[in-house]
Amino acid sequence: MTRTYPYAPGQYEAATGKQSGLEEFSYLCRRRWRFRNLGTWVVRRMNGKPYLSVHATGNACDLGYGSTLRDRQKALEACRWFTRPDVATTLGIVAIHDYSANPPRAWRCDRDAWQGFANGELGAGGRWLHVELAPRQGSLSRKDYRKLWKSLPR
User: Residue 2: inside a domain, yes or no?
Assistant: First the structure.
């Protein structure tokens, strides 16, 4: 089931601080898959573009992982879970960038599918996932976001 993608470039404003729902999402991912927090809220432009990064809204995080095959398998497991229709809708996941895929790929809620980007459009690549949440879920309290997470089967 597709949903509207809420972050058209140039159509959103920077937040004045971190968003508690997104911070809880990042924490829960780090706890479940042993990811590292590579960053959440920062007011900056997209690489090579004149528009604000979704990180500026406080509703995007970068989750790093190690260099072993097991680490990559955990990242793929997370991607499969994030893109399940019940999970993506409930948690408000609207986009995922998988920079380690060959070619790098992105999933978005408005197409409910992965798309490869062989031309470098997603950036240089690396061992991390970039995940964006919808504004409603990103702004929930940590406690309310945790309730959503716990309501879902693993």
Answer: no
Q: In terms of Cα–Cα distance, which of 105, 103, 94 is closest to 137?
A: 94
Residue 104 lies in domain: 20-150
Structure tokens at 42: 């920062």
In a domain, 132, yes or no: yes
Q: Is residue 38 part of a domain?
A: yes
Q: What is the 3-state secondary structure (H, E, C) of 111-139?
A: CCEEEECCCCCCCCCCCEEEEEECHHHHC
Distance, in Å, from the CA atom of 82 to the CA atom of 89, rounded to the nearest integer, reads 9
Asked if 118 and 132 touch (Cβ cutoff 8 Å), the reply is: no
pLDDT tens by residue, 137-151: 999 999 999 999 999
Rounded CA-CA distance 82/92 in Å is 10
Q: What's the structural domain count of the chain? A: 1
Q: 54 phi and psi, to 5 degrees? A: -65, -25
- For the stretch 29-81, pLDDT in tens is 999 999 999 999 988 878 778 889 999 999 999 999 999 999 999 999 999 99
* 10 in any annotated domain: no
* Tens of pLDDT, residues 49-59: 888 999 999 99
